[in-house]
């Protein structure tokens, strides 16, 4: 059966069409450096709070462990001093003295720990996001008071991911704490046979071991979270093709406007160049395709090219020269060499001095004959 003999059947279906515009709004492009810089100014950077927490805890517990003997003896000495004078009257002088003593004790024991925590906290923040201080992220924004936006943030994909991360972190840390304490609980009852100093020392060792194990786990989780936050920030900052084009227009300028500006600049340069043609001493041509206007004044090292052009521009230069009675000399090799070897405003190349001098001498002889 031929194709023309097949019965016609009408199907009430919409034909499939692959619309590329459907994907035009997809954020598939990597964020530009300007996009990242603007986001950084707004505080939108990839940073892990778990990593901050881990290193702050590490610094605090490490300094406490190093200064443990000093901290213990300072607190013990001051406590002994306070309770060894129970009969002191409760008056303003004694209260002030006790208060000053507490401040001095805190300065001796807590300030080194606080200083270490502050220093490490700043260092880990600089490591993650660099030196970035801005007030935009803490500024008042009315949309933050909108309950609808608030519910949107609470039940967003990011919040769900953060919830899963928190549950995972609690489970991992809880597992390590359970393993550690289950091993140490069997040894704790024998602490009752030790004196207070020895018992406190043993408890401190257990606490430090437990803290450093947990901190090690948090550091590993923080490093993983830091990588995830960097990746998530990049995904959030991705741009559509149209956004990339718009940004390029803003930073580099609209190509059409830039083209018009360049065209206007060329026109202005051409106009200035044509104004110099009547001041030239001679026009060297080839005779149709190239024209170069030369000017020489007393005191110049060499003649200067004040105008040059090809085809239509060369024709216009010769027309202005005729109207201004500037001599036109045909010299094909010299015209081509001058056009290719120098720009407007440059001196004649040294290898063309002899040829240009002969042309200028010829022109000067012509002028002298006309005057005679």
Automatic annotation (TrEMBL):
It is found in: Cell membrane. InterPro entries: FlhB, T3SS_substrate_exporter, T3SS_substrate_exporter_C. The chain crosses the membrane at residues 51-68, 98-124, 163-181, 206-228. It comes from the Bacteria. Keywords: Bacterial flagellum biogenesis, Bacterial flagellum protein export, Cell membrane, Cell projection, Cilium, Flagellum, Membrane, Protein transport, Transmembrane, Transmembrane helix, Transport. Signal peptide: none annotated. GO terms for cellular component: plasma membrane. It is a multi-pass membrane protein. GO terms for biological process: bacterial-type flagellum assembly; protein secretion. Its main location: membrane. This is Flagellar biosynthetic protein FlhB. It comes from Selenomonas ruminis.
């Amino acid at each position: 059966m031929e194709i023309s003999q097949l019965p016609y059947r009408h199907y009430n279906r919409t034909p499939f069409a692959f619309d590329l515009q459907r994907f035009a709004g997809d954020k598939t492009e990597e964020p530009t450096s300007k996009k990242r810089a603007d986001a950084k100014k707004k505080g939108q950077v990839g940073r892990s709070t778990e990593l901050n927490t881990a290193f702050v805890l590490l610094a605090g517990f490490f300094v406490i462990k190093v200064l443990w003997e000093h901290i213990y003896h300072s607190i013990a000495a001051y406590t002994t001093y306070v309770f060894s004078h129970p009969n002191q009257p409760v008056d303003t002088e004694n209260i002030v003295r006790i208060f000053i003593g507490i401040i001095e004790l805190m300065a001796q024991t807590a300030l080194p720990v606080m200083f270490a925590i502050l220093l490490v906290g700043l260092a880990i923040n600089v490591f993650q996001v660099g030196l970035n201080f801005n007030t935009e992220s803490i500024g008042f924004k009315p949309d933050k008071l909108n309950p609808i936006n608030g519910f949107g943030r609470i039940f967003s994909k990011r919040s769900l991911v953060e919830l899963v991360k928190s549950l995972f972190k609690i489970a991992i840390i809880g597992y390590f704490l359970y393993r550690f304490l289950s091993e140490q609980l069997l040894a704790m009852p024998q602490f009752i046979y030790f004196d207070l100093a020895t018992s406190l020392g043993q408890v401190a060792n257990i606490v430090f071991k437990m803290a450093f194990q947990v901190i090690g786990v948090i550091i590993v989780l923080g490093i993983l979270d830091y990588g995830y936050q960097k990746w998530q920030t990049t995904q959030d900052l991705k741009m559509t093709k149209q956004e990339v084009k718009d940004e390029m227009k803003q930073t580099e300028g609209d190509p059409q406007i830039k083209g018009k500006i360049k065209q206007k600049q060329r026109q202005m340069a051409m106009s200035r160049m044509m104004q110099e043609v009547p001041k030239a001493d001679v026009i060297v041509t080839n005779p149709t395709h190239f024209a170069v206007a030369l000017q020489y004044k007393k005191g110049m090292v060499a003649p200067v090219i004040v105008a040059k052009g090809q085809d239509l521009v060369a024709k216009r230069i010769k027309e202005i020269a005729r109207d201004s009675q500037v001599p036109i000399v045909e010299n094909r090799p010299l015209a081509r060499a001058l056009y290719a070897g120098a720009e407007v405003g440059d001196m004649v190349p040294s290898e063309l001095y002899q040829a240009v001098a002969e042309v200028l001498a010829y022109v000067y002889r012509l002028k002298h004959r006309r005057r005679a």
